[in-house]
Amino acid sequence: MLEAVSVVLLVAVLAVAVVRPRAVPDAAVAVPAALIVIAVGAVSWGHARAELGRLGPVVGFLAAVLALADACAAEGLFAAAGNAVARATGRSGRRMLVGVVGLAAATTAVLSLDTTVVLLTPVVLATLREVDLPARPSLYACAHIANSGSLLLPVSNLTNLLAVAVVPISFTRFAALMALPWLVTLAVTFVVLRVFFRADVSVEAVRAAGPPFPFPRFAGGVLALTLAGFVVTSFAGVAPVWAAVGGAVVLAGKRVLARQTHPWHVIVSAAPQFCAFVLALGVVVRAVSDQGLGHVVPHLLPAGASLVDLLAVAGVAAVLSNLVNNLPATLLLLPIAATHGVAPVLAVLVGVNIGPNLTYPGSLATLLWRRVLVRDGLARPLGEFTAVGLALVPVSLVAATVALWLSVRLIGVA
């Protein structure tokens, strides 16, 4: 009975996240669902408190990065970057795709995938309209790189932060091990999109890009120092949330003091409702795990770290992400993968970060990307999205996992 209640509530929470009705915030369903599973005893208060304690620093980091990214956007950092890409690529559609892939990869790596879909995608769209180039290749690049391009750093994705919380790995070693899978994934994404949209990519821009935008040096400096802070805090054994909070306080605080924004806007930019949703979702997933699913998952993952084992782990993670969304999949798989070592945990990340590009519900970032396009009247048909995913995800998944296996053999996990 408790197992059925937990599963039904999890499905309801995910359904609201997928449909995202305007009148019903995600947290409005997720928080009551978490309270219900605690009240009926589907998850003990001790386990719920432990889950909240595990997710707290991760969600705090997410809030700080979102506030920092919003301040960067307001300072004109993304607009300047988009203009620079357009000017550097000239009128070539192929070079524009190269530039967008690179810009999306850098944005995702440093400021997380949500920044890419929510803040960078509209900038890319505006840039394409300015020069009159077909939008599809670059828009899909934003969506796919937001997910798969988040492999590089622990701070690039909420899933990565959850992973480094369960295995002993430093910021720099994580980056070293994931650099090759990241680069391989970017290359595969560019090649597949160029082939899939070859007619659009071959078009030349009707108009040249406008004059250069002034680069916001203060925002760029704060962002660079924040990234350096991630490395320093890792060596110091301090949670990266403090570096993110520092960057957000400095840049958003500067804008508040200059009366360029209101403190309430800064709070809203940190997405408190989404953060509450993530915390509540963690409790509901823990209830589902405690009521039986947690006993099934261990049988899905192999215990080794051979190439075949890592491919199997990444494949299971990718499939589960598309069935229940990548965040619940991560919460379910990481505790099991962590018992087998660092390499399987990183293989889980390959699966939950690349796999969601196959379906809209695969990740919250993809759903946010779709909302941005719907708002601008450019929603991509489900058939087209799935076709691109089928062409790209299997190749990327295998290539990135092989690259991860090579990195582990060459660099080592300790």
Label this structure with key terms:
globular; 0% strand; 19 helices; single chain; 414 residues; mainly alpha
Notes on the protein architecture:
The protein has 414 residues and is an all-alpha fold. Helix content is 77%, strand content 0%. It is built from 19 helices and no strands. The protein has helices at 2-19, 26-39, 45-75, 77-89, 93-111, 113-131, 136-148, 158-164, 171-196, 198-201, 217-236, 241-257, 263-269, 272-296, 307-324, 326-338, 342-354, 364-375, 382-411. Helix 1 packs across helix 14. It is globular. It starts with a helix and ends with a helix. The mean pLDDT is 86.
Summarize the entry for a quick read:
By secondary structure, the protein is an all-alpha fold. The protein is 77% helix and 0% strand. It is globular and about 65 Å long.
